[in-house]
């Protein structure tokens, strides 16, 4: 064996070792850096949608953000939603409030339970995020329309959703919405003074 073939062999070995190290680093980088907590204390709630029995667990991770794990009856995660400290639909995450008031309810009146998590109470308006159950995807899908509404309230009997905007210190802007052909449409608007009952 000459020096040239030994150098090629050495280079191949170094290349293979380097590739293996990079692949290992990539796998560790893709793995979640937090422990999953499926305990009674972390249970947000249980729901049956489209014949599937699901349990939602909500817990904080080290950096102050949160994770919502939605699990099947075998406690296997079927969907995971991450909540950073600041999000597109909220100013800053208030985990305790979100955990206390997160709920499953039918928000588009299709007979399936959906998911609403109020995320932030640090601004004038309550900000939250809403996911609608998608029967084809068999998962909760983020609703941009509902998530962009302040102080969301659902009235199932009237099939109506209201939003209240407290930005103006003197009056509250109230908007009413209804679903039509899968689209959320505004159907009314009025204002009330901040001190008046609604």
Summarize the structure in words:
With 198 residues, this protein is an alpha+beta fold. The chain has one domain (40-193). The protein has helices at residues 3-30, 95-101, 144-147, and strands spanning 43-49, 52-60, 66-71, 77-83, 103-105, 114-120, 127-134, 139-142, 153-155, 160-165, 171-180, 183-193. The strands form 3 sheets. It has a 4-stranded antiparallel sheet with strand order 1-2-3-4. A 4-stranded antiparallel sheet has the order 5-6-7-8. The longest helix has 28 residues, at 3-30.
Largest sheet: 4 strands, antiparallel
* Beginning-to-end CA distance, first to last residue: 91 Å
Task: Tell me the structural class.
Answer: alpha+beta
- Total helices: the number is 3
Output the keywords:
about 200 residues; alpha+beta; four-stranded antiparallel β-sheet; 3 helices; globular
Would you summarize the structure shown here?
This protein is of the alpha+beta class. Helices cover 20% and strands 41% of the residues.
List the helices and strands and how they pair.
Elements (H helix, E strand, L loop, with lengths): L2 H28 L12 E7 L2 E9 L5 E6 L5 E7 L11 H7 L1 E3 L8 E7 L6 E8 L4 E4 L1 H4 L5 E3 L4 E6 L5 E10 L2 E11 L5
Antiparallel strand pairs: 1-2, 2-3, 3-4, 5-6, 6-7, 7-8, 9-10, 10-11, 11-12
């Amino acid at each position: 064996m000459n020096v040239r073939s030994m150098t090629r062999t050495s280079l191949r070995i170094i290349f293979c070792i380097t590739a293996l190290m990079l692949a290992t680093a990539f796998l560790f980088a893709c793995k979640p850096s937090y422990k999953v907590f499926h305990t009674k204390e972390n249970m947000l709630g249980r729901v049956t949608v489209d014949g599937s029995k699901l349990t939602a667990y909500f817990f904080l991770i080290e950096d102050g953000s949160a994770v919502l794990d939605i699990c099947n009856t075998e406690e296997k995660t079927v969907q995971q939603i991450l909540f950073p400290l600041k999000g597109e639909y909220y100013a800053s995450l208030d985990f305790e409030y979100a955990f206390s008031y997160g709920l499953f309810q039918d928000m588009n009146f299709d007979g399936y339970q959906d998911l609403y998590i109020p995320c932030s109470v640090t601004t004038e308006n309550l900000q939250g995020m809403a996911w609608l159950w998608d029967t084809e995807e068999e998962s909760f899908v983020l609703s941009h329309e509902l998530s962009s509404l302040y102080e969301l309230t659902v009235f199932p009997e009237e099939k109506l959703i209201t939003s209240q905007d407290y930005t103006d210190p003197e009056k509250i802007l109230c908007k009413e919405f209804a679903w039509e052909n899968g689209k959320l449409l505004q159907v009314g608007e009025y204002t009330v003074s901040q001190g008046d009952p609604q």
